[in-house]
Amino acid sequence: RRLDSSVFASIGGSTGSGAGQAVGFRSLQQAPTAPATPTTPTTATTTYVPPSEAACYQSLAEPQKDAVRTLGYTIGSWHACKNTACPWPADVPRPDASCLDHMVHLENKYNTSTV
């Protein structure tokens, strides 16, 4: 839709052509601003590693041990990946232990009844 000359004049424009119209439109615009100064992007890096990342399996809290197992690690794979200097937990039978050793371990761990 085009502005007729009366509407254009009521907003401060010139009804002439050329430079007059440009001045009328310029008065409606914001004052020119200084050009933006270029900024240098900043980056930050961190070398923080949670203590649990290098912890031995037996030193983890129970919720952390649950998370380790949920992620698919075994005790051996956790130690191999996180800290190869960790010894095998004394209270857990090794994978090559007998079924009886594993059963006794699990009974001691999960049996809450008193004898």
Kindly describe this structure.
With 115 residues, the chain is an all-alpha fold. It is built from five helices and no strands. The longest helix has 12 residues, at 99-110. The chain is elongated, with a radius of gyration of 38 Å. The chain starts with a helix and ends in a 5-residue tail after the last helix. The model has no long low-confidence stretch (mean pLDDT 78).
At a glance:
The protein is mainly α. 39% of the residues lie in helices and 0% in strands.
Name the descriptors.
mainly alpha, 39% helix, elongated
Topology as a string of helices (H) and strands (E): HHHHH
Q: Let me know the number of strands.
A: 0
Structure classification = mainly alpha
Mean of pLDDT: 78
Cα-atom radius of gyration: 38 Å
- Specify the overall morphology: elongated
Contiguous helical run count = 5
User: Distance between the terminal alpha carbons, to the nearest Å?
Assistant: 94 Å
Largest sheet: none
Low-confidence stretches: none
User: What percentage of the residues does DSSP assign to strands (E)?
Assistant: under 5%
Q: Roughly how much helix do the residues carry, as a percent range? A: 25-40%
